[in-house]
Description:
By secondary structure, this protein is mainly β.
Amino acid sequence: MNERETPDLSKFPPALAPRVLLEDTHLVVLDKPAGLLSQGEHTGDINLVDWLRGYFGRHYVGLVHRLDRNTSGVMVVAKRTKSAQRLTASLQKGALKRSYLAWVEGRVTAPLSLRHFLLKNERTNEVRVVREGSPGAKVALLQATPARHGVYQGTALTLLEIELDTGRSHQIRVQCAAAGHALLGDRKYARNPALLAFSRPALHSHRIEFPHPMGGELVRVECPMPADLQLR
């Protein structure tokens, strides 16, 4: 496909088509399915940005933040450059807030407040916890509250509601694993073989909140967990 060619949405697999939750002339809030890349990469696989180019009928897409390929849930995308700039500024100063749901190993009964220093290996796309002051390391902060408990193939699990104070690559997956509560299905960071049979990291972006980039009014959108994460 030519770089400026508008994609044909009829060629996108229905299972990977995002669901629009809210839209106006400045932005769109959508539910990204697991399996869909947020933007193009070396594989050439279909991605959200290309889908939005077809949906908008033009080339410009203001991607404000990303979700990992196998993370599902709510995202906000700008339609215009000014909206993108203002949403990005809200993200940087903490006014754009994201909440996640994650099934993790173990029975968590009290809130968690996690602080680590993370270092990403760009070559392998892996993140690890390192000592404070390590060259290139960035602080990562999150708060997690247990929502309910469940079991997967005999392994005790907890559904955590997670609020990010920082937005680091693989942050939730790495910090939870470092705290002894690796995500169900996380083949990169989990060590318990019982967790690895699940099809993907059990992580869902379920709520986003931000001031509208033009009017300033608070926008809050929630997105229920998909069927594959409805564990008991």
